[in-house]
């Protein structure tokens, strides 16, 4: 036992006490849902590789794995309350990367019309540019590069429209059916694929326009909701 129970803590102890509280506020990102989402991110390039190199069975298997884990990670996160901020970012990112790779790879192999690939990718590029724009104009001053990438400062919310949700499901169905076609050559999927391609083209254009004309798609948050976080950061 120390003979100086009331002695002030040493410099190392003092620094450690200051660090520990801040560490305790960090969320645990190493959860099962996040690992499953990360595995989808890793699998996406291999799906494209398999399609480009005519490994159709592997491509279909990896696509099925991505779909199953997409459903599973969300269910696990909700069931055991394992939602994280990182998860809300990388989950849609994994879906979008997979969709982009599938679109490019299938179009390159001639399984998907180039005009449809241009519509799908064009919509995504347009939404990405819009997101950057709305983030900038809605960011409370001072507008700096570091504050732009500080997502603890909310400025605008983009809410998926109803047609956008249907469009995502139809796009995935089209990609899945297109991936199945070479694996089961005995099935004549030419007509269903042709019909689905025009449907997806229509819903893709419609969903892109819905973000422009819908009043509820983009919500600019009032600066009063941001100031408390800024002030809290200043006090730390």
Description:
The chain has 2 domains: 29-109, no CATH class; 111-236, no CATH class. Strands 1-2 form a two-stranded antiparallel ribbon. It has 236 residues and is an all-alpha fold. The chain has helices at residues 11-24, 32-52, 56-79, 85-108, 114-138, 145-148, 162-180, 190-213, 227-235, and strands spanning 156-158, 218-220. It is globular, with a radius of gyration of 24 Å. Helix 2 (32-52) packs parallel to helix 4 (85-108) and helix 7 packs antiparallel against helix 8. The protein starts with 10 loop residues before the first helix and ends with a helix. The chain contains 9 helices and 2 strands; from the N terminus they run ααααααβααβα. 19% of the residues are buried. It is a multi-pass membrane protein.
**How widely separated are the two ends?**
34 Å
Q: List segments where confidence is low: pLDDT < 50 over at least 5 consecutive residues.
A: 16-25, 225-236
Radius of gyration from the CA trace?
24 Å
Order of helices and strands: HHHHHHEHHEH
Annotation field: number of helices: 9
* Major sheet characteristics: 2 strands, antiparallel
Q: Which outline best applies?
A: globular
- Structural class comes to mainly alpha
> Residue share in helices?
55-70%
How are the strands of the largest sheet arranged? Answer: 1-2
Total domains, how many?
2
| Total E-strand runs | 2
What is the arithmetic mean of pLDDT? 78
Q: How much of the residues is beta strand, in percent?
A: under 5%
Membrane topology: Multi-pass membrane protein
Subcellular location: Membrane
Family: Belongs to the CDP-alcohol phosphatidyltransferase class-I family.
Keywords: Lipid biosynthesis, Lipid metabolism, Membrane, Phospholipid biosynthesis, Phospholipid metabolism, Transferase, Transmembrane, Transmembrane helix
């Amino acid at each position: 036992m120390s003979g100086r129970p009331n002695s002030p803590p040493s410099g190392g102890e003092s620094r450690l006490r200051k660090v520990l509280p801040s560490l305790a506020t960090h969320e645990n990102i190493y959860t099962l849902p996040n690992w499953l989402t990360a595995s989808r991110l890793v699998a996406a390039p291999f799906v494209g590789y398999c399609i480009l190199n005519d490994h159709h069975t592997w491509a279909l298997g990896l696509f099925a794995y991505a779909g199953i884990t997409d459903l599973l990670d969300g269910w696990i996160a909700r069931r055991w309350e394992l939602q994280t901020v990182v998860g809300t970012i990388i989950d849609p990112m994994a879906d979008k990367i997979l969709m982009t790779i599938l679109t490019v790879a299938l179009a390159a192999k001639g399984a998907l019309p180039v005009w449809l690939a241009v519509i799908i990718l064009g919509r995504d590029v347009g939404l990405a540019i819009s997101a950057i724009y709305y983030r900038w104009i809605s960011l409370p001053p001072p507008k700096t590069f570091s504050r732009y990438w500080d997502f603890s400062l909310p400025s605008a919310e983009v809410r998926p429209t109803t047609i956008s949700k249907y469009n995502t499901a139809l796009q995935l169905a089209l990609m899945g059916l297109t991936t199945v076609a070479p694996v089961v050559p005995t099935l004549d999927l030419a007509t269903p694929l042709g019909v689905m391609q025009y449907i997806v083209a229509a819903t893709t254009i419609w969903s892109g326009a819905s973000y422009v004309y819908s009043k509820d798609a983009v919500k600019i948050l009032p600066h009063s909701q941001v100031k408390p976080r800024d002030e809290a950061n200043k006090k730390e």
